[in-house]
Protein backbone atom coordinates (compact mmCIF):
# COMPACT_ATOMS: atom_id res chain seq x y z
CA UNK A 1 0.00 0.00 0.00
CA UNK A 2 1.21 3.54 -0.76
CA UNK A 3 2.51 5.37 2.29
CA UNK A 4 0.73 8.72 2.54
CA UNK A 5 2.52 11.93 3.46
CA UNK A 6 1.82 15.38 4.86
CA UNK A 7 3.51 18.75 5.22
CA UNK A 8 2.79 20.60 8.47
CA UNK A 9 4.02 24.18 8.87
CA UNK A 10 4.74 25.62 12.31
CA UNK A 11 5.48 22.07 13.47
CA UNK A 12 8.21 22.77 16.05
CA UNK A 13 5.68 23.09 18.86
CA UNK A 14 2.03 23.58 19.81
CA UNK A 15 -0.80 22.57 17.48
CA UNK A 16 1.58 21.88 14.56
CA UNK A 17 3.69 19.44 16.56
CA UNK A 18 0.59 17.63 17.86
CA UNK A 19 -0.68 17.36 14.26
CA UNK A 20 2.64 15.98 12.99
CA UNK A 21 2.63 13.37 15.78
CA UNK A 22 -0.93 12.25 14.97
CA UNK A 23 -0.11 11.91 11.25
CA UNK A 24 3.01 9.88 12.12
CA UNK A 25 0.95 7.67 14.45
CA UNK A 26 -1.38 6.78 11.58
CA UNK A 27 1.60 5.85 9.39
CA UNK A 28 2.18 8.95 7.26
CA UNK A 29 5.62 10.38 6.57
CA UNK A 30 5.60 14.01 7.62
CA UNK A 31 7.65 17.04 6.60
CA UNK A 32 7.81 19.23 9.70
CA UNK A 33 8.36 22.84 8.59
CA UNK A 34 9.29 25.69 10.94
CA UNK A 35 11.45 28.81 10.90
CA UNK A 36 12.89 27.96 14.35
CA UNK A 37 15.48 25.44 13.15
CA UNK A 38 16.78 24.59 16.61
CA UNK A 39 13.36 23.92 18.15
CA UNK A 40 12.41 21.97 15.02
CA UNK A 41 15.44 19.66 15.23
CA UNK A 42 14.64 19.00 18.90
CA UNK A 43 10.93 18.37 18.18
CA UNK A 44 11.64 15.96 15.31
CA UNK A 45 14.31 13.99 17.15
CA UNK A 46 13.25 10.40 17.62
CA UNK A 47 10.04 10.81 15.60
CA UNK A 48 10.22 8.00 13.04
CA UNK A 49 9.06 9.15 9.59
CA UNK A 50 9.54 12.86 10.36
CA UNK A 51 11.55 15.07 8.01
CA UNK A 52 12.46 18.43 9.61
CA UNK A 53 12.59 21.26 7.05
CA UNK A 54 13.61 24.71 8.32
CA UNK A 55 11.78 27.45 6.40
CA UNK A 56 10.18 30.84 6.99
CA UNK A 57 6.82 30.50 5.22
CA UNK A 58 6.58 34.26 4.64
CA UNK A 59 9.61 34.19 2.30
CA UNK A 60 8.81 33.18 -1.33
CA UNK A 61 12.30 31.84 -2.13
CA UNK A 62 12.44 29.75 1.02
CA UNK A 63 8.96 28.34 0.38
CA UNK A 64 9.88 27.33 -3.19
CA UNK A 65 13.01 25.53 -1.95
CA UNK A 66 11.12 23.95 0.95
CA UNK A 67 8.44 22.53 -1.36
CA UNK A 68 11.03 21.06 -3.75
CA UNK A 69 12.88 19.52 -0.82
CA UNK A 70 9.64 18.05 0.63
CA UNK A 71 8.62 16.60 -2.75
CA UNK A 72 12.05 15.01 -3.16
CA UNK A 73 12.24 13.64 0.40
CA UNK A 74 8.64 12.43 0.65
CA UNK A 75 8.19 11.29 -2.96
CA UNK A 76 4.58 12.54 -2.97
CA UNK A 77 2.53 15.14 -1.10
CA UNK A 78 -0.94 14.08 0.07
CA UNK A 79 -1.71 16.89 2.52
CA UNK A 80 -0.64 20.42 3.33
CA UNK A 81 -1.46 21.86 6.75
CA UNK A 82 -0.93 25.64 6.81
CA UNK A 83 -0.59 26.04 10.56
CA UNK A 84 2.36 28.43 11.12
CA UNK A 85 1.06 31.58 12.75
CA UNK A 86 1.96 34.52 14.96
CA UNK A 87 -0.25 36.52 17.32
CA UNK A 88 -0.52 40.23 17.98
CA UNK A 89 -3.18 41.78 20.19
CA UNK A 90 -3.86 45.49 19.77
CA UNK A 91 -6.54 47.91 18.55
CA UNK A 92 -6.31 49.81 15.23
CA UNK A 93 -5.03 53.00 16.80
CA UNK A 94 -2.09 51.29 18.54
CA UNK A 95 -1.07 48.87 15.80
CA UNK A 96 1.96 50.09 13.90
CA UNK A 97 2.27 49.17 10.23
CA UNK A 98 5.31 47.02 11.13
CA UNK A 99 3.17 44.98 13.56
CA UNK A 100 0.37 44.69 10.99
CA UNK A 101 2.85 43.47 8.32
CA UNK A 102 4.50 40.95 10.67
CA UNK A 103 1.13 39.28 11.23
CA UNK A 104 0.04 39.37 7.57
CA UNK A 105 3.44 38.11 6.36
CA UNK A 106 3.13 34.82 8.21
CA UNK A 107 -0.59 34.29 8.79
CA UNK A 108 -1.81 35.24 5.31
CA UNK A 109 1.12 35.44 2.86
CA UNK A 110 2.51 32.18 4.28
CA UNK A 111 -0.74 30.33 3.51
CA UNK A 112 -0.87 31.78 0.00
CA UNK A 113 2.77 30.96 -0.79
CA UNK A 114 2.76 27.40 0.59
CA UNK A 115 -0.52 26.59 -1.16
CA UNK A 116 0.64 27.94 -4.51
CA UNK A 117 3.89 25.97 -4.31
CA UNK A 118 2.08 22.76 -3.27
CA UNK A 119 -0.62 22.74 -5.98
CA UNK A 120 1.29 20.74 -8.64
CA UNK A 121 2.13 18.07 -6.05
CA UNK A 122 -1.40 17.98 -4.58
CA UNK A 123 -2.87 17.68 -8.08
CA UNK A 124 -0.84 14.50 -8.58
CA UNK A 125 -2.30 12.89 -5.42
CA UNK A 126 -5.75 14.58 -5.37
CA UNK A 127 -4.63 15.76 -1.96
CA UNK A 128 -6.03 17.93 0.82
CA UNK A 129 -5.29 21.34 2.31
CA UNK A 130 -6.17 22.38 5.85
CA UNK A 131 -5.62 25.99 6.92
CA UNK A 132 -5.59 27.04 10.56
CA UNK A 133 -7.58 30.20 11.24
CA UNK A 134 -9.06 31.11 14.64
CA UNK A 135 -12.32 32.08 16.27
CA UNK A 136 -10.74 35.56 16.03
CA UNK A 137 -11.39 35.32 12.27
CA UNK A 138 -15.10 34.68 12.88
CA UNK A 139 -15.81 37.38 15.48
CA UNK A 140 -14.43 40.89 15.91
CA UNK A 141 -13.02 42.20 19.17
CA UNK A 142 -11.58 45.56 20.18
CA UNK A 143 -8.15 43.97 20.55
CA UNK A 144 -7.27 41.97 17.47
CA UNK A 145 -7.22 44.10 14.36
CA UNK A 146 -4.24 42.46 12.68
CA UNK A 147 -4.65 38.91 13.99
CA UNK A 148 -8.43 38.76 13.45
CA UNK A 149 -8.22 40.27 9.98
CA UNK A 150 -5.47 37.84 8.93
CA UNK A 151 -7.54 34.88 10.14
CA UNK A 152 -10.75 36.12 8.45
CA UNK A 153 -8.72 36.32 5.23
CA UNK A 154 -7.53 32.74 5.74
CA UNK A 155 -11.17 31.62 6.01
CA UNK A 156 -11.93 33.32 2.70
CA UNK A 157 -8.76 31.94 1.10
CA UNK A 158 -9.96 28.46 2.09
CA UNK A 159 -13.21 28.94 0.16
CA UNK A 160 -11.21 30.29 -2.75
CA UNK A 161 -8.93 27.23 -2.71
CA UNK A 162 -11.94 24.89 -2.59
CA UNK A 163 -13.62 26.69 -5.50
CA UNK A 164 -10.52 26.75 -7.69
CA UNK A 165 -8.91 23.41 -6.90
CA UNK A 166 -11.97 21.16 -6.68
CA UNK A 167 -11.66 20.29 -10.36
CA UNK A 168 -8.30 18.66 -9.59
CA UNK A 169 -9.81 16.61 -6.76
CA UNK A 170 -8.07 18.80 -4.17
CA UNK A 171 -10.13 19.56 -1.04
CA UNK A 172 -9.48 22.62 1.12
CA UNK A 173 -10.86 23.17 4.61
CA UNK A 174 -10.16 25.34 7.60
CA UNK A 175 -10.06 24.79 11.35
CA UNK A 176 -10.85 27.74 13.62
CA UNK A 177 -9.53 26.84 17.07
CA UNK A 178 -10.71 28.44 20.26
CA UNK A 179 -8.07 29.16 22.91
CA UNK A 180 -5.38 26.51 23.42
CA UNK A 181 -2.61 26.72 26.03
CA UNK A 182 0.35 27.09 23.67
CA UNK A 183 3.25 29.53 23.70
CA UNK A 184 1.33 31.74 21.25
CA UNK A 185 -1.69 32.06 23.56
CA UNK A 186 0.36 32.36 26.74
CA UNK A 187 2.08 35.42 25.25
CA UNK A 188 -1.15 37.38 24.68
CA UNK A 189 -3.83 36.01 27.04
CA UNK A 190 -3.89 38.11 30.22
CA UNK A 191 -5.51 36.69 33.39
CA UNK A 192 -8.61 38.76 32.52
CA UNK A 193 -8.82 37.26 29.03
CA UNK A 194 -8.37 33.75 30.43
CA UNK A 195 -11.17 34.26 32.96
CA UNK A 196 -13.49 35.72 30.32
CA UNK A 197 -12.87 32.76 27.99
CA UNK A 198 -13.54 30.34 30.81
CA UNK A 199 -16.96 31.89 31.38
CA UNK A 200 -17.86 32.37 27.69
CA UNK A 201 -16.98 28.85 26.49
CA UNK A 202 -19.80 26.36 27.13
CA UNK A 203 -17.26 23.63 28.00
CA UNK A 204 -15.62 26.14 30.42
CA UNK A 205 -12.03 25.34 29.47
CA UNK A 206 -9.27 25.87 26.95
CA UNK A 207 -8.77 23.17 24.31
CA UNK A 208 -5.69 20.97 23.99
CA UNK A 209 -3.31 20.79 21.04
CA UNK A 210 -4.46 17.21 20.39
CA UNK A 211 -8.14 18.22 20.28
CA UNK A 212 -7.34 20.62 17.42
CA UNK A 213 -4.95 18.20 15.70
CA UNK A 214 -7.55 15.42 15.54
CA UNK A 215 -9.92 17.67 13.56
CA UNK A 216 -7.09 18.60 11.17
CA UNK A 217 -6.17 14.94 10.64
CA UNK A 218 -9.83 14.02 10.06
CA UNK A 219 -10.21 16.75 7.41
CA UNK A 220 -7.11 15.44 5.60
CA UNK A 221 -8.40 11.86 5.65
CA UNK A 222 -10.62 9.99 3.20
CA UNK A 223 -13.33 10.06 5.87
CA UNK A 224 -13.85 13.72 4.88
CA UNK A 225 -13.80 12.98 1.13
CA UNK A 226 -16.96 15.05 0.41
CA UNK A 227 -16.08 17.96 2.71
CA UNK A 228 -14.47 21.01 1.13
CA UNK A 229 -14.59 24.79 1.54
CA UNK A 230 -15.65 24.49 5.20
CA UNK A 231 -14.46 26.17 8.37
CA UNK A 232 -14.91 24.04 11.47
CA UNK A 233 -14.70 25.79 14.82
CA UNK A 234 -13.03 23.54 17.40
CA UNK A 235 -13.75 25.85 20.30
CA UNK A 236 -15.69 24.20 23.11
CA UNK A 237 -18.89 25.76 21.75
CA UNK A 238 -17.76 29.40 21.94
CA UNK A 239 -18.87 30.22 18.39
CA UNK A 240 -22.41 29.07 19.14
CA UNK A 241 -22.95 31.39 22.12
CA UNK A 242 -23.14 34.84 20.55
CA UNK A 243 -20.85 36.18 23.32
CA UNK A 244 -18.19 38.63 22.07
CA UNK A 245 -14.50 37.78 22.11
CA UNK A 246 -12.77 38.85 25.31
P1 LIG B 1 2.88 28.26 18.70
O1 LIG B 1 3.45 29.63 18.86
O2 LIG B 1 2.96 27.32 19.84
O3 LIG B 1 3.50 27.54 17.41
C1 LIG B 1 3.61 28.22 16.18
C2 LIG B 1 4.81 27.70 15.42
O4 LIG B 1 4.84 28.38 14.17
C3 LIG B 1 6.15 27.99 16.12
O5 LIG B 1 6.93 26.82 16.18
C4 LIG B 1 6.79 29.07 15.25
O6 LIG B 1 8.21 29.01 15.22
C5 LIG B 1 6.19 28.74 13.88
N1 LIG B 1 6.19 29.90 12.98
C6 LIG B 1 5.76 31.16 13.23
N2 LIG B 1 5.97 31.94 12.16
C7 LIG B 1 6.53 31.16 11.20
C8 LIG B 1 6.98 31.40 9.89
N3 LIG B 1 6.89 32.62 9.32
N4 LIG B 1 7.50 30.36 9.19
C9 LIG B 1 7.59 29.14 9.74
N5 LIG B 1 7.22 28.85 11.00
C10 LIG B 1 6.69 29.86 11.72
O7 LIG B 1 1.37 28.51 18.25
P2 LIG B 1 0.06 27.57 18.22
O8 LIG B 1 -0.84 28.06 19.29
O9 LIG B 1 0.41 26.13 18.13
O10 LIG B 1 -0.57 28.11 16.85
C11 LIG B 1 -0.69 27.33 15.68
C12 LIG B 1 -1.77 27.96 14.81
O11 LIG B 1 -3.03 27.92 15.51
C13 LIG B 1 -1.52 29.43 14.47
O12 LIG B 1 -1.88 29.67 13.12
C14 LIG B 1 -2.43 30.17 15.42
O13 LIG B 1 -2.79 31.44 14.94
C15 LIG B 1 -3.60 29.22 15.49
N6 LIG B 1 -4.45 29.40 16.67
C16 LIG B 1 -3.96 29.22 17.93
C17 LIG B 1 -4.79 29.43 19.02
C18 LIG B 1 -4.31 29.27 20.45
O14 LIG B 1 -5.03 29.67 21.38
N7 LIG B 1 -3.13 28.71 20.68
C19 LIG B 1 -6.13 29.78 18.83
C20 LIG B 1 -6.60 29.95 17.55
C21 LIG B 1 -5.75 29.75 16.47
From TrEMBL:
Instruction: List the InterPro entries.
Output: KR_dom, NAD(P)-bd_dom_sf, Sc_DH/Rdtase_CS, SDR_fam
Q: Which GO terms describe its molecular function?
A: oxidoreductase activity, acting on the CH-OH group of donors, NAD or NADP as acceptor
Q: Which SMART domains match?
A: PKS_KR
Q: Name one GO biological process term.
A: fatty acid elongation
All copies of domain Ketoreductase, residue ranges: 4-181
> From the record, what ranges are coiled-coil?
none
Which family is it part of?
Belongs to the short-chain dehydrogenases/reductases (SDR) family.
Protein name, per record = NAD(P)-dependent dehydrogenase, short-chain alcohol dehydrogenase family
Q: Which organism is it from?
A: Salipiger marinus
Amino acid sequence: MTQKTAIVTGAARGIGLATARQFLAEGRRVAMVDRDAEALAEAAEGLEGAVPVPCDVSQPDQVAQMMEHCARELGRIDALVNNAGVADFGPIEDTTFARWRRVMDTNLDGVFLCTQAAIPHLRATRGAIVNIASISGLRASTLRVAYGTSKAAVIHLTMQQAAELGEYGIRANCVAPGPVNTKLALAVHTPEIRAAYHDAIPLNRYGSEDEIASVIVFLCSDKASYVTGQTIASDGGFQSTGVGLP
